[in-house]
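Problem 12. The chain below contains 380 residues. Write out its predicted structure in token notation.
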Amino acid sequence: MKSIWYPILASAFLFSCENGNNNNFSEGNLTINFTLEELEGEEVVLELLSSNPKHAQLDTVKTKNGKGFFNHETEKTSFYQVYVPGKNGEIIFIASPGDTVEIEANANHIYSSSRIGGTKENERLDSLITLIKATKFYTDSLQIVFKNAQSKQMHYALQEGFQKLYGNAKMKEEAFVINFIRKNPGQYSNLLAVNSLNKLRHRKIFQLVDSALVKNFPANEDVLKFHESIENRYPPSVGKKAPNFTLLDANDENISLSDFKGKYILLDFWATWCGPCIKEIPNLKRIQENFGGEKFEVISVCHDRNNPDAKRTWKKINEQHGTTWTQVYDAGGLATAKNYKITHYPTMLVLGPDGKIIDAGNHIRGENAYQIIKNLVENE
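Solution.
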């Protein structure tokens, strides 16, 4: 089970703990009751989960008739796990100050048999884990069947059907997780749920969880780490302040984005080697000629190599196309690529007079970009 859950938890948020003492936990009594069938007189370990493979061990107890409990002091909501040394599988759960958590499992089949409850959050988490375990059992079974078919030279005939069944199972799991999150985006268990999704394809879900968790757990270190990862992972989104920058223009004059406060801005990130970027130049010229002035400005930021030849190419392209709007050069993209998370070219953003992003995405191209700016300026 560690191989399944640890990467998800580690990628989500969890922070490293330097030691396993209780000095960092001073408020809120926590009780964990457990029943582990087919276990007698053996130790059960309680750990606070962290991004470090060496989690903070908090306590150990010996079972009596398969039963036992932990009493622990905690001041915040966190993920924990219990396990039996020498047995496969861990039981992951969520606990907050004052909680009583109930755990059940068969000690010889911890992964497949574990159930968690006692709080609504853990009942919710249990439903998620149960679904993910069921999907894994099903897809593992498919892989066994396919592997057996390979040994009998039958796998070519089965491959298409296998891929379809496997894909359908993963799609159902994904749909469950998305619905699970959308029903209660501010629940702590979503730190685990959301990281089973594709980070690029489900950007809006990640951001939904981020904003809801920050609201519900504003001082929680795990949530703040997750929030930081979201801020670093995605480009600034609609409603966010566009990061300021100061770059040199063709005359080696400093130009800052903040110089244009009070205007609508079409911010264009491009590169001289990018064919689609070059094709957009006539459209940008048309936009600037029709709307540029007191209310609006195009600003093009070129990301290219940090050498004289590349900069000369940039200047030559601007001269050939007769660009009349603000052009600045960011050698290697060092000043803006990181802050704006530029992953492809061209990338265009529309900024409002207050410097906040009001539109972003691949739809800002050609005639569509023209109409977006036209509507903004003429309706001002």
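Discussion. Residues 13-27 have pLDDT under 50 and may be disordered. Students who got a different answer should revisit the alignment rule from Section 12.3.
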